[in-house]
Amino acid sequence: MRITIFGATGGIGTAACREAAERGHEVTAVVRDAARLPADVRERVNVVVADVMDPAAVQSAVEGRDAVLSCLGSRGGRAATTVLTDAATSVVKGMRAAGARRLLTVSAAAPYPDPGDGFLGGRVFKPLVSKILERPFADLLRADDLVEKADGIDWTLVRPPMLQNGPATGTYRLGLDLAPPKARRIRRADVAAAMLDLAGDPTSIGHVAWVAA
Which PANTHER family match (predicted)? Predict the structure, then answer.
């Protein structure tokens, strides 16, 4: 596949670039600073320095692509932000202009209740985290809603629980529109692998893909 990856210098984005290249895909990694992309990845992908907030730049980066992966995350902290909403708006606009349709974007499990949360997860952990990160989560929720309502886009929201570093384990659990039981954590590299698997899976279009270790 021909794949464009936004947020390529982040944990999931870098892992997605590396994994996609290893699978033999043609990868365009969109970054703000090429130096932040590891050397072993830079030499195996097409690096494009561009601003994801510029729909024209997005259009250029996604033209002729089979799939677009948005691995963008918030910039940390608890302050109010619109970075994810603005990025989603720009990516959708640029994809429409380019005639690109397949979009997979990273969401998060914490702001969303799930029947499998259990007492501690549903009554303690998630409410506490959602309260602490109320303002950045509001941005995430707006971005998710925008993607879900985007006409002409074949979207999949990829919703992981707590993220961990480390090499890919080679396995993950997947649930469409419902989290796997006891979905507590997953490695960033496994989220990347799941996104690449889902990119070629038409049954995941228009669904939320919950992933967990």
Answer: FLAVIN REDUCTASE (NADPH)
Rounded CA Rg of the chain: 16
Tell me if 163 sits within 8 A of 187, measured CB to CB: yes
Nearest alpha carbon to residue 88 among 103, 67, 109: 103
Stretch 62-89: mean pLDDT: 89
Tokens of 73: 């995350």
Q: What is the per-residue pLDDT for 184?
A: 87
Closest listed residue to residue 109, CA positions, set 120, 122, 92: 122
Q: What is the mean pLDDT of residues 74-86?
A: 80
Query: Dihedral, CA atoms, 69, 75, 81, 84, nearest 10 degrees?
Result: 0
> 190-210 burial string, b = 16+ CB within 10 Å, else e?
bbbbbbbbbbeeeebeebbbb
For residues 64-69, average pLDDT: 98
Domain ranges of the chain: 2-212
Helix/strand/coil percent split, the chain, to 5: 45, 20, 35
Say what percent of the chain tops pLDDT 90. Answer: 78
pLDDT at position 123 is 53
Question: Rounded to two decimals, what is the model's pTM?
Answer: 0.91
Going by C-alpha positions, the residue among 147, 63, 69, 52 that lies closest to residue 98 is 63
What's the rounded Cα separation, in Å, for the pair 163 and 161?
A: 6
| Structural domain 2-212, CATH architecture | 3-Layer(aba) Sandwich (3.40)
